[in-house]
Each structure stands twice: as structure tokens, then as C-alpha cells.
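If you are new to this repository, start here. Below is one unmodified record pulled from the training split, so you can see the exact layout before writing a loader.
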Amino acid sequence: METFGLQMDRVHLSSPMLSPHQHFDLELNFVESGWVELHCSGTLARIEAGECGLFWAACPHQIIQCAPETQFCWITFPVRWFLDWKLGDSIQHAVLTGKIIVDKTAAQLTGDSAMLERWLNDQQRGSNKLWEMELSCRMGRLASNVDLVDATHTSNTLKPMPGASQRILQLAVALSARFSEDISIAQLAAEAGLNPNYAAEAFKRLLGCGPKEYVTRMRLAQAQRLLLTSDLSVLDVAYASGFQSPSRFYAWFERAIGCSPQVFRKKHQAPGSLC
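And here is the target side for that same chain:
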């Protein structure tokens, strides 16, 4: 799995993302104009102009709808920083279990706009240390507003999608909630009102991968979280993430992440980061 480290960019969106994306970083999305509707690990959130969303990008994520000519800045930063900043167990657990944290304190728009310009300039000049310090402060402010932050956003406030697409998203939410179980994708598709064969094709068209691959991505994200934040053995991590075979877990993990679970844990786990 690729990682970007500390990076940012300002982009203009005219259409949704074609498929889910994953990378091993935390990601902040500051929406400057328009709005986006973001799907991440079964969580659906609408982020309006003046708001920002925080999520762990190791979980499959995708902008599924947006206003025409939406402008937003994305910022990525290492997960190790997120653990080291000790922003609180509730926000840390919510983010690392695939929730989208939406900071809805729109009054901060002016301050955030000036801050984003500074960060873009810092990136151009290579002044990453100042940028990192300001980012940690902004994250601390977000965490201190935790009662104003929506960590359990649902689809209730989202713009309705065509019926079949809405049912595919319903299936994605169900898969995200039950990926660690020995689930029947055909049964969950039927519960969402979908023919299983049609569901696989429609799921891939809307979300860029099939239901089986989506479940594997969710299981790998869960395994990474447990390796980072628990002292479970690698074998227990595999079973707790939904893998029924340790050998298949090792094969999938090394293929997707590029190293063994043991090497991953040693490289990324922060001392005292268990939560």
C-alpha cells in the first residue's frame, strides 16, 4: 500500500471519483466551495463548504457525489503522528475504525483559508517543520471540539441516489459492518433487494471493485489498525479481522502492504499507543 507522508494539494472536482482509493496515511479534506459526499468503510458523510473531514485513508474511500466545480484541499500526514499527538481515545478509535470525523464549525472558515495558503506556501518552500507544528495544533482544535464533531454521520442527510445505486451503497454499509464475520455476500445482496449476480457487477461499476475485494480491503484495514493499536498476536489479528486462514492473511497482507505483519507493526507502532 502506498503512502504519501506530509503532502497537500488544492483540486477542483466536476465529477465523483471513479473507484475507491487507499493509502497508508491520515487524510484531511477541507472543502472551500461546493460540497462532497464521501464514502469510507461504510460511513457516508456530506462535507459542506467551510467544513473539513478527517479519516484514515487505509480504509477504502471514495467521493461518490459532489457539487459542480467543488474546490477543496486534501492533506495527508503519517499515521504515526496521529498516534503520537494523543488527541484522545474517542477520536483515535473512531478514525482508526473507519469513521469520518466532520468538523462542522464553519466559523473557522476564514482562519482555515489563511492557514491552507500558508501550508501550500510551506510545501513549495520545503518548510515542513512549521507546517507540521500548525497541523498538530489544528488537529488539537478539532479534537477539542469533539462534541461539535460528527463522528457517526449517516446517510440521512445525503442527497438521494438512484434506487439501484442506493441499494449498492446499502450493501457496502452492510459489508463494512460485518466484514470480520464469515459472511455470505449473496445473502447480504438479497437483503439489500439485489440479485447476487447483478450486485457484483453493479457494485464494481459504482465503487470500482467487487464485493469480495471490498471485504478483503476492509479486513486488511482492520488488521493494520489492530497491529497499530493492540498487543494481539499476529494470529489473533488475522482471525479478528475476518481471515479464516493465517496463510491467506499473510499472503494478502504482504501483497497489499509490501511487508509482513510483524515488520509492519515494528515499523509503525508508536510506544504507548494501545487504545
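Two things worth knowing about this chain: The CA atoms of residues 38 and 149 lie 16 Å apart. The radius of gyration is 19 Å.
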